Amino acid sequence: MEYNLVATTTFGLEGITAKELKALGYEDLKVENGKVHFEGDEMDIAIANVHLRTADRVFIKMAEFEARSFEELFQGTKAVKWSEIIPQDGVMHVVGKSVKSTLFSVPDCQSIVKKAIVTSMSEDYGVTHFSEDGPVYKIEVSILKDVVTLSIDTSGVGLHKRGYREEAGIAPLKETLAAALVLISRWKEEYTLVDPFCGSGTILIEAAMIMQNIAPGLCRNFVSETWPTIGKDIYEQVKEGAERSIKKKDIKLIGYDIDGRMLKIARSNAQKAGVSNYIEFQKRDFKEFSSSEKNAFIIINPPYGVILGEKKEVEELYKYLGMNKRKLDTWDFNILTSYEGFESPFGRKATKNRKLYNGKLKCYYYQYFDNEKIKNHGDMVVNHI
Fold first, then answer.
1. Are residues 24 and 147 in the same domain?
2. Alpha carbons within 13 A on the beta-carbon side of 107
């Protein structure tokens, strides 16, 4: 069965997720704020969930229609063939949001949608009571400017939950964003990659997984695995294919942190992710950082000053970063920060910067392209399944 599928993303990552989908072989993509639309069947749902690194979730879009009254919402929802996906014992969990719409009461909208789904399924199954003790179906009703979108979540737990990170630091970076930082850097396998504030190791772990083509969803489960229309067999086929696609490249990644406890967590996370052989973690203050390598890369998510530390301390830290950049003048530096005016203490305007969101915090990704051996600024490191 063909579905209208939607990969949702954090604002700013839509284009990166679209490139991932293109690399996986999908065409006719439609990109909008926080979403990438594509077509696919049950196998494609499994492929997207297992392989996408920068998406938050994968949804089946069931319907879209205008509604300015509860009656219109009810009839529009009832018209959908829910029984094609949801079995008689399915648990129907409705969540919702409403923005700039006549129907502004989300609890009321959720209640109406649930009632309409039950009515529709009652007509199709010929029963009036549903046990709701089977697989879970989280249905999202989203109303924007009186346009209702009804979707079913196929992922379950968010896709950033890879399964390797049980613990994180004080201000953790989502795995999906960490992967994006790597994908839009120019890092290639022949160069050393350094994270001088590695914390729980997320950037380096995601980088190693990308370069070894380890699918991010290989070691976790998805809610749609429990659905009779998809099931474990399809996911097992996709995961077996992903296993066969893993590469064994010779790469070198180095992580520094001043906190020994965080390094212990980082090593444990790398071990769980299957990339501990490629990452060297060292206890070291960034101020002691030095390297004799001619060409290498830094991808870093340093303290912002908003969450950690004081403004003066953070500015001092950014000055140290700038001093190191001047010494390592043939390295590429990639720095994510929400600190306004970062370039001033750093001492140099970025070659390129783009707006990204770390959670709800607006950040900028400052990129300094100085490794002259890397010619294609716009290339994105994406492996194929």
1. yes
2. 0
